[in-house]
Design brief:
Layout: H1 2-17, E1 23-29, E2 40-43, E3 49-51, E4 57-60, E5 66-72, E6 79-84, E7 90-92, E8 102-105, E9 108-111, E10 119-123, H2 135-138, E11 146-150, E12 159-163, E13 176-179, E14 182-183, E15 210-216, H3 219-222, E16 233-238, E17 245-260, H4 269-286, H5 290-295, H6 321-324, E18 328-340, E19 344-356, E20 363-376, E21 381-395, H7 407-412, H8 436-442, E22 445-463, E23 466-485, E24 499-522, E25 526-549, E26 564-587, E27 591-602, E28 611-622, H9 627-630, E29 635-649, E30 662-663, E31 680-681, E32 692-705, E33 710-722, E34 725-729, E35 738-742, E36 745-761, E37 765-782, E38 787-789, E39 795-797, E40 805-808, E41 811-814, E42 821-823, E43 838-842, E44 847-857, E45 860-870, E46 873-876, H10 877-882, E47 930-932, E48 935-946, E49 955-963, E50 967-969, E51 989-990, E52 997-1007
Parallel strand pairs: 1-7, 13-16, 46-51
Antiparallel strand pairs: 1-4, 2-3, 2-5, 5-6, 8-9, 10-15, 11-12, 13-14, 15-16, 17-18, 17-52, 18-19, 19-20, 20-21, 21-22, 22-23, 23-24, 24-25, 25-26, 26-27, 27-28, 28-29, 29-32, 30-31, 32-33, 33-36, 34-35, 36-37, 37-44, 38-39, 39-40, 40-43, 41-42, 44-45, 45-48, 46-47, 48-49, 48-50, 49-52
């Protein structure tokens, strides 16, 4: 280490001794002559990048008399320019030359024109004002091949994200997220029950801190990440300062409100009572036994004097939904300082976000602080740090499945005729649900997440073109959950007499990486680069859980006050060691070749299969550089790409899945003094357990037309996953029920099309558009046995079908003469039973994508983003419970759609006759509740105005943003994006889930 510091000092002193005069200049628009800020300026032959300031100025500390620069800015034609102290002015021509933009790839950057892989780039500034907690939700509709659904309308909840389909059953299907080189955890640490939902770790990251987002999709791009690249890679670059730029202060503030655009349509009190009495009358007519005739002889809604609940017309209607839902406040405050001198650049940012949920009393708030600093020790060595610290707080609620403590269930699934208070004024409790007002007034489920994501790096140019980089990274999360249920709620009612739980989970991941890269150009046309590196990673997760019951009163909420207390503790760890390399070569900016390989060794796998090897190769051919196209002005660029490779997956399984584990706490009897402590076998070992492997082929074309006014990117791909990580059953004679093994195969095939256009471009007015559409076909190719998912087995994973398939009885029609539902008798045995269930539809869309339009005129700007999905199905569990025809007794909700039931011969409807007998309402897995979930959403509309120049201010912009203004869909629920479960194998099940809110906010951006 001492010799290393001597080496650095030698380089530093040598550099200063050779220093030349500083070169400074201004970058301007070649047409308007106005200065351009944010222009990227790369000094060729070095690792130095500078960015023009708000006045278009740049400065290069003197190290040479002359420089060759690569100058680029989105929306302008990039160029190489030679400058010196006497001639340092640069101008850029407006254009749409995206081929020269710099793209972040694994362990480096590349020009887009040299890519052999499929990568989508997103400017975070375009989506950061969308009022959701996690940046991943803001990307919906922005990138081809990336399906994103916000599963609930509760801020801070998890989102469904898939890059080119689903590859696994038990292992994780989420992409790998990398923030400033740090592999971050994106698996929820939540343990409290929220009805099947889970919080999002991505919500811990402040979207205002993000500069750019790159989504790596094919094997050529992701194989450098080996065992974690099968599901795609999302690379996040946070904001940094600029060298030689004056301090810039940015203040961003927005505030507004959100509310549910639509709620469920329920029956009124009189309508509900009428339906129940009709159900009783029909059931009495169908009854054959004396017991059934007695059961249905007296309808519930008859005169009170006869022991009934009153006549149907006497029933009142209580609106619980509008008591639960509210107009929610949303606000965001962001302050940042950035700048830099000749040797140091910095970015300091602080932000606070406060979002009420549209469901009382839930909400999410996040405070964050970021400090990014980069410092040049000399012209050869640079060090830097990235630090992000956040505190996220959630007032959490059970708004998914399950009655106890369920917020939305209490409002939605309780019949409207039932009163909210008893005759004596005490809160009423009906149908197994908690009283809504009691929940609103006493809900106490809270989560606090304290998270740090940061790294420290050193870059050194050892020789011309030879660069070394070392970094240390840490992702630490302290996740503190607590809940208290008092004796007025079901979970805390007698004999429990209050129930409190506390769980503190600590998750820490540290990473050390080294890379050595070399790049050279020879013979004027040959460009060669090589990268080698290694990664060492370790993750530790530990959790402490405590629970107490039997409290002396509701004023006591700490577990220390409980009469009965229990506790438990868990600890788990895994290590990962990796080695990787990438070699690329290009000739004359025309032919491109790239080879990547990574070797990963994981402690999760068996002794015989610790290491996995993941190679990839990509090639590109820029036909535009060929003589037969070079003179054709209509085609400004044309490139063909092809890639193939292998990636892996290890995430989402038990850290000790391959080991033969034993467990403590297995007491054995001792006649003298009770049980003695002991151990017992817990899990069978599998020394051959290994990685899931996904091989992927990709072919693409990049086309630029009309001087790049029109850009088209098209990709077709095939992904095939083998050695799926599954828990397979074993014979009970072994003493176990299952063990982890590699079995099953899944395929994904599809295409992606992106079109970018500059429709109008004049001095004052510009209109640009981007459109993308994607299709992915998923299929389970091999599976030892079908796997059923969720309660009542509504979802089934079965060989030959897509994941997320529904396993149902197919209702063909309702007989117009009898009013009975007719189901398909698949096995033709004259009866309807489980053998007649079949795969009917699935929740994966046939097509999805987005359309974005951006218009600007003088100081005004307008952005309109539309997202869509087509061909996906939703099983509407709310209708399943709300259209039970009275079979779930009079204390269960009935939806207004039940009014469409068959009543007399000749009625044409799909809602059968109300009765307790037959198959009309006894087959729960009924295709009648399977609906088309296709939708088209006006995701965001933003209107802004940049004020004329104000003294001492760089810029002032005011704006208005509206989200989810309208949704076009045939789905009968309030929102087709909803999904009840965080289980990755569940999609398209809607029950008790709040819809996405419609929001409106006003904002102000000031730059000093």
């Amino acid at each position: 280490m001492k010799q290393f510091y001597v080496f650095l000092l030698f380089i530093s002193s040598y550099s200063w001794a050779q220093q030349a005069p500083t070169v400074s200049g201004t970058v301007t628009d070649a047409v308007s002559k106005q200065p351009l800020s944010g222009v990227s300026i790369f000094i060729k032959g070095s690792n130095t990048e500078i960015v023009s300031d708000a006045d278009g100025k740049y400065k290069i500390p003197g190290t040479a008399k002359e420089y060759v620069l690569f100058v680029s800015l989105v929306g302008y034609q990039s160029r190489d320019v030679k400058i010196n102290a006497a001639n340092a002015q640069i101008s850029l021509q407006p254009g749409n030359r995206t081929i020269d933009e710099i793209v972040v790839v694994g362990y480096g950057t590349q020009k887009r024109k040299t890519l052999t892989s499929a990568i989508s780039s997103i400017n975070a500034a375009e989506v950061k004002d969308i009022p959701v907690a996690g940046f991943n939700e803001q990307l919906q509709g922005k990138a081809s091949g990336v399906q994103i659904n916000s599963n609930t309308g509760i801020p801070g909840d998890g989102a469904f994200v898939r890059v080119r389909g689903t590859t696994s059953i038990n292992a994780s299907n989420d992409p790998l997220y990398i923030v400033d080189g740090v592999f971050i955890n994106n698996t929820s640490l939540q343990t409290v029950n929220s009805g099947g939902r889970a919080t999002s770790p991505i919500a811990d990251i402040n979207p205002d801190d993000i500069q750019n987002i790159e989504i790596l999709k094919d094997a050529s791009a992701t194989a450098i990440y080996g065992a974690r690249g099968a599901n795609g890679v999302v690379i996040i670059s946070t904001k940094r300062g600029n060298f030689n730029s004056k301090p810039t202060v940015s203040v961003n503030y927005s505030t507004g409100w959100a509310k549910a655009a639509e709620l469920w349509d329920l029956t009124t009190g009189p309508e509900h009572a009428t339906l129940i009495n009709e159900f009783y009358a029909n059931s009495l007519a169908d009854a054959t036994s004396a017991a059934d005739k007695t059961k249905y002889a007296l309808p519930p809604f008859r005169p009170v004097s006869q022991g009934g609940r009153g006549l149907p017309q006497e029933q009142k209607t209580y609106d619980r939904l509008h008591k639960l839902f509210r107009t929610a406040r949303i606000s965001n405050y962001n302050l940042s300082l950035s700048g830099g001198g000749a040797n140091t650049k910095y970015f300091i940012g602080a932000s606070y976000t406060d979002q009420e949920a549209i469901v009382k009393p839930l909400g999410f708030n996040r405070g964050s602080f970021r400090l990014n600093v980069d410092h040049k020790l000399n012209s050869k060595v640079q060090v830097g740090v990235s630090n992000g610290l956040t505190r996220s707080y959630r007032n959490q609620g059970r708004t998914g499945d399950g009655p106890a403590g369920g917020m939305l269930q209490s409002a939605l699934h309780t019949p409207t005729y039932l009163p909210e208070v008893n005759a004596d004024g005490t809160p009423a409790r009906w149908a197994g649900f908690d009283n809504l007002q009691v929940l609103i007034d006493n809900y106490n489920v809270n989560t606090t997440s304290l998270r740090y994501i940061g790294n420290l790096y050193v870059d050194a140019e050892l020789l011309p073109g030879l660069k070394f980089r070392s970094s240390w990274s840490l992702d630490y999360n302290n996740y503190d959950e607590s809940e208290y249920w008092n004796d007025q709620m079901q979970l805390g009612a007698a004999p429990t007499n209050g129930l409190a739980t506390s769980n503190i989970t600590q998750n820490s991941t540290w990473i050390n990486e080294q890379t050595l890269s070399y790049r050279t150009t020879f013979g004027r046309k040959h460009d060669f680069g090589i990268l080698i590196g290694n990664t060492i990673q370790s993750n530790i997760t530990k959790s402490t859980f405590a629970q107490g019951s039997g409290f002396p009163g509701n004023a006591f909420t700490l577990i220390s006050a409980a009469a009965t207390r229990t506790a438990s503790q868990t600890w788990t760890k895994y290590n990962l060691t990796s080695f990787f390399s990438r070699i690329d070569y290009s000739y004359a900016d025309k032919y491109f070749l790239e080879f990547t390989i990574r070797a990963d060794g994981s402690s999760r796998f068996g002794e015989n299969r610790k290491f996995g090897y993941f190679p990839a190769i990509g090639a590109g051919w820029r036909l535009k550089e060929e003589p037969f196209l070079k003179g054709l002005d209509a085609i400004s660029d044309l490139k063909l790409r092809v890639s193939a490779g292998l990636t892996g997956n290890q995430n989402g399984i038990n850290n000790f899945a391959a080991q033969g584990n034993w467990t403590g706490g297995a007491g054995y009897p001792d006649n003298s003094s009770g049980d003695k402590p002991g151990t017992a076998p817990q899990q069978l070992a599998n020394p051959d357990l290994q990685w899931e492997k996904t091989r992927q082929l990709n072919a693409g074309i990049d086309l630029g037309l009309l001087k790049d006014r029109l850009g088209i990117e098209f990709n077709v791909y095939s992904k095939y996953t083998t050695d799926n990580l599954l828990q397979l059953p074993v014979s009970a004679i072994t003493g176990y029920t299952s063990y982890y093994a590699n079995a099953g195969e899944i395929s994904n095939k599809g295409f992606e099309l992106s079109i970018n256009s500059v429709n109008v471009k004049s001095r004052h007015f510009r209109w640009s558009s981007s459109f993308n559409i994607s299709r992915n076909v998923n299929r389970v190719e091999k599976l030892p046995i079908p796997i059923n998912q969720y309660s009542r087995d509504w979802v089934r994973i079965q060989e030959g079908y897509s994941l997320y398939s529904f396993w149902l009885y197919k209702q063909l029609y309702v007989d117009p003469q009898t009013g009975n539902a007719v189901f398909e008798d698949v096995v033709k045995d004259g009866s309807i039973n489980v053998a007649d269930r079949q795969i009917l539809g699935n929740a994966a869309p046939e097509f999805f994508g987005g359309l974005n339009n951006t218009l600007s005129w003088k100081g005004f700007d307008l952005g309109v983003l539309i997202s869509y999905q087509y061909g996906n199905d939703i099983f509407n569990l709310n209708r399943f419970f709300g259209e039970g025809g009275g079979t779930r007794d009079a204390n269960r909700v009935l939806f207004a759609n039940q009014l469409r039931r068959w009543q007399k011969p000749g009625d044409i409807t799909d809602v059968p006759r109300l009765t307790a007998f037959g198959n009309n309402y006894t087959l729960e897995q009924n295709s009648r509740f399977l609906e088309d979930g296709s939708f088209l959403k006006l995701r965001t509309l933003t209107l802004g105005y940049k004020l004329p120049k104000i003294p001492k201010l760089q810029s002032v912009r005011v704006y208005f943003t509206a989200s989810n203004l309208f949704t076009l869909t045939n789905y009968s629920g309030p929102d087709p994006e909803l999904n009840v479960s965080s289980n990755q194998n569940i999609l398209g099940l809607d029950i008790g889930t709040p819809p996405q809110p419609r929001s409106f906010q006003f904002g102000l951006n000031v730059t000093l």
